[in-house]
Design brief:
heterodimer; A: about 375 residues; alpha+beta; four-stranded antiparallel β-sheet; B: about 475 residues; Uridine Diphospho-n-acetylenolpyruvylglucosamine Reductase, domain 3; Alpha-Beta Plaits; five-stranded antiparallel β-sheet; 18 helices
């Protein structure tokens, strides 16, 4: 099917109003191949940073703005996105250019999510176009705003099913001068999650807590000024001494690879499981393949033989999203976790209001 | 402020409704005697009051569901109520409504330090959530000034903030899960002990929905380890422009203070006279607080005071002790009390982009002079959430209306400069009719369609949030 690349929100609204069949909203195309049975509605022509106020920790950018452009602008002012968005290209083996719109539409959040919140926690406001081609706004560019219903959170992670996001207001964080990683070797998953929980319960502001069951390594990250990082590394090492010895290394460390689950590439299906941290070890024990635990136990990346229903194998989890699988596996098992009837009825009712003609329901974007 | 005419059908139904409520629920949970209903006629927006038809104070989620089922069946409006501390009239009754209060739902259901969460019934007060975990070194971060009295249910309904949200976020950033009872009595669990939504983020939608979508009876809240320590410094300037510059420079330097509070001269003078905090007499004053170990605090306060000293301050006072920290905070924390001694006041709550501070303060001064009223400003400067206090004399006829008109002008100004009507108090009835200043009709329509999904008959918290003329069609349809 064809592709539309409107250059503005008004053109995008026109394109939606004149659509005669299903539309697949697409940012940089990093997460899925172009839909076969829908017209691609690309937002990459709607781009550019429209406002950046470092002194107010605020940025507004059009949705098609590449993440690389946003990160470069932030780096020039020593700032960053708190939620450390992950890059889907690594595990999906895909090209494309990640955009801020795609990031928000999938609520893409990396290791720092466990303390700094998810993408949805950093979004201050949105402009979007619904399935009737109406241009809408919610939230704004200020950090505290409780005016009216919060459609910002509703749109974050809605994966293009409620509308096409055209502009995003973001809350930023100051960058840091130093990063250190504390690593423990050889802990089984139960002990690793215990150590991560203990670390996250200290006042030493751990901003990453991950465990690799294959290598047996457990990593804890500390960030801040050089003096503060040195102090907290020392205190944390002492506080966790009963959990085993920790080695300290400086610099970026393993976090970019943890963020993108870079060791879990290949042909196996890949899932992202959101689970109560204290259930992480128990869940990992049921998995049929390689895994990675992040968010102090709250997130499990899990491989499985193609076509395996991991949701059935892992009772008691919060939810599991199918990230990498054949198209028929996605349709058979469902990309997103099935919802209880009452919640599915509410979600379905909301989708009907925003997209009465069902233009955006081709299939949910994975990851 | 207008409220719709009460529905005569419902008023005539009172005896029958009370009979059915008492049959479905324990008798002591149902209040219907006129003299007892008076206690529920208003919240903290005391300018408006109206006794409800009846009050129900359930003791469980099941009882909440039973009450909602009955009201839904009889098409009786329901006004959910937390602790009744809303400054926006979020729990203001209508004469034909049932107040559904969570005051008896105060239990802690679960605490897990391993998962860093606490699950509570939502009638529990904000401060007592921290109280339940602080002996073990944890706290619940959102800290609205009413935290001693306000309930978690109301915090969720209004997405409450507080002084420390620059670092820790507001309620929606600290809420993991909620048990929600829908208008027809259906109970749904949103979120839980895990992070993020698998499908649409309905938890994020419920938070801040002002009781328009459902009644939250239980909540799973994120708790955090207490910092090692915290210490403020006080910085005085002879212009609010320079104070605003200082805030921006601190943030640009890479420091993220846990709180940055701003006070202007009328506020400084009033609070100092009231509390004896020993504030400098200057045009603008900042209280900047940082957290960490002693050495980390010293390092951050060092950077902050260096920035301040370059801006020719009237005074820089770094707290050296817990006693001095309390004195610095004393005036700020008694600001509303101090103002209450002087006069009646309306407390506004608009948010502006931080960079607009000097211009907005100047305009507020001019507009106040135009009305012949005085305004004192306290302000969460790090996040742009303003609290202008409009002083007036409630005993003089027409003064309240004048103060309200000035308030509307100031909030419209907040929107004009890129901000919003309310940063943490909510819309309620107070800002309901100003919503058109911030939202186009299509934006409001999108929000009302979401309410249609949850509450098709528009029974929950009627005549709030959406301007009356905007919601008139829907309310009329529902009343048929």
């Amino acid at each position: 099917m064809g592709e539309l690349t409107p250059g503005s929100a008004a053109e995008l609204a026109d394109a939606i109003r004149s659509a005669t069949g299903p539309l697949a909203i697409r940012g940089g195309g990093t997460r899925a191949p172009a839909a076969e049975h829908a017209t691609t509605l690309s937002i990459r022509g709607i781009r550019g940073i429209t406002l950046y106020e470092p002194g107010a920790l605020t940025m507004v950018a059009r949705a098609g703005t590449p993440m690389a452009e946003i990160e470069a602008a932030l780096a020039a002012e020593g700032q960053r996105l708190a939620f450390e968005p992950w890059d889907a290209r690594t595990v999906l083996g895909r090209g494309g250019e990640p955009t801020i719109g795609g990031c928000v539409a999938t609520n893409a959040s990396g290791p720092r999510r466990v303390v700094a919140g998810a993408c949805r926690d950093a979004v201050l406001g949105l402009r979007f176009v619904d399935g009737e081609g109406t241009i809408l706004k919610n939230g704004g560019r200020v950090m505290k705003n409780v005016t009216g219903l919060d459609l910002v959170r509703l749109l974050c992670g809605s994966r293009g099913t409620l509308g096409a996001i055209t502009e995003v207001g973001l809350k930023l964080l100051p960058g840091v001068a130093a990063t250190a990683t504390l690593t423990a070797e050889g802990l089984p998953a139960v002990a690793a999650v215990g150590a991560m929980s203990a670390a996250l319960a200290t006042p030493f502001e751990v901003t990453g807590a991950a465990h690799d069951p294959q290598s047996g390594r457990t990593h804890l990250r500390i960030e801040g000024s050089a003096a503060s990082v040195a102090y907290r590394a020392e205190r944390l090492t002492r506080a966790l001494s009963s959990h085993g010895a920790l080695s300290v290394s400086e610099g970026e460390g393993p976090w970019p690879r943890i963020r993108d689950a870079a060791d879990l590439t290949g042909d196996a299906d890949l899932w992202r499981i959101s689970v109560r941290p204290s259930r992480a070890a128990d869940t990992v024990a049921r998995l049929p393949g390689r895994a990675l635990i992040d968010w102090g136990g709250g997130l499990i990346w899990a491989e499985a033989p193609p076509g395996t229903d991991l949701r059935a194998a892992c009772p008691g989890i919060g939810h599991a999203t199918l990230v990498r699988a054949a198209a028929d596996t996605h349709s058979r098992l469902g990309t997103l976790h099935p919802e209880p009837d009452a919640i599915a009825a509410l979600s379905g009712g909301i989708r009907d209001k925003f997209d009465p003609a069902g233009l955006f329901r081709a299939r949910p974007v994975p990851a | 402020m207008q409220m719709p005419e009460p529905d005569a059908r419902i008023l005539s139904l009172k005896a029958e409704l009370v009979r059915r409520l008492v049959r479905a629920l324990p008798a002591e949970t149902v209040i219907h005697a006129p003299e007892e209903l008076r206690a529920y006629e208003c919240d903290a927006l005391t300018a408006y009051a109206c006794p409800p038809l009846a009050v129900v104070l359930p003791r469980s989620t099941e009882e909440v569901a039973a009450c909602l089922r009955l009201c839904h069946e009889h098409r009786v409006p329901v006004v959910p109520r937390g602790a009744g501390t809303s400054l926006a009239g979020g729990a203001l009754p209508t004469a034909d409504c049932v107040i559904l209060g969570v005051a008896r739902l105060t239990e802690v259901l679960e605490t897990s330090y391993e998962d860093r969460l606490i699950r509570v019934q939502t009638g529990r007060t904000n401060l007592s959530v921290t109280g339940a975990v602080e002996a073990d070194g944890f706290f619940y971060a959102p800290d609205p000034s009413s935290q001693l009295a306000c309930a978690i249910a109301g915090n969720i309904a209004m997405n409450s903030g507080g002084a420390h949200c620059l670092k820790y976020g507001v309620t929606t950033n600290n809420l993991l899960g909620a048990t929600v009872v829908l208008i027809d009595g259906t109970v749904v669990e949103l979120g839980g002990a895990h992070m993020d939504a698998g499908g649409l983020d309905l938890l994020g939608l419920i938070c801040g929905s002002e009781g328009q979508l459902g009644v939250v009876t239980e909540a799973t809240l994120r708790i955090l380890p207490k910092p090692e320590g915290a210490r403020p410094c006080l910085i005085g300037f002879d212009s609010s422009e320079v104070a605003g510059q200082c805030v921006s420079d601190i943030i640009k330097a890479g420091i993220l203070p846990v709180a940055i509070e701003f006070m202007d001269r009328p506020c400084i003078r009033a609070t100092d006279a009231f509390s004896g905090a020993g504030y400098p007499d200057c045009a603008a004053m900042l209280i900047v607080e940082v957290e960490g170990s002693e050495a980390e605090i010293d390092e951050q306060l060092g950077v902050i005071t260096e920035i301040a000293r370059k801006l020719d301050p009237v005074e820089v006072r770094v707290s050296q002790s817990e006693e001095e920290s309390s004195r610095i905070w004393l005036g700020r924390k008694s600001a509303f009390g101090a103002m209450g001694q002087l006069n009646d006041y309306i407390c506004l709550d608009g948010t502006i982009p931080v960079g607009e501070l000097p211009r907005v303060l100047r305009r507020i001064g001019e507009m106040a002079a135009g009305y012949g009223l005085e305004v004192a400003n306290v302000f969460h400067a790090g996040d742009g959430n303003m609290h202008p206090l409009i002083l007036f004399d409630a005993n003089e006829a027409g003064e309240l209306e004048k103060a309200e008109a000035l308030g509307a002008d100031i909030l419209t100004l907040c929107v004009e400069v890129g901000g919003c009507l309310t940063g943490e108090h909510g819309v309620g009835v107070e800002k309901r009719d100003l919503m058109a200043a911030q939202f186009d009709p299509a934006d409001l329509e999108a929000q009302m369609r979401v309410k249609d999904v949850f509450d098709p008959a528009w029974l929950l918290n009627p005549a709030k949030v959406f301007p009356l003329d905007t919601s008139a069609g829907r309310r009329a349809l529902a009343a048929e």
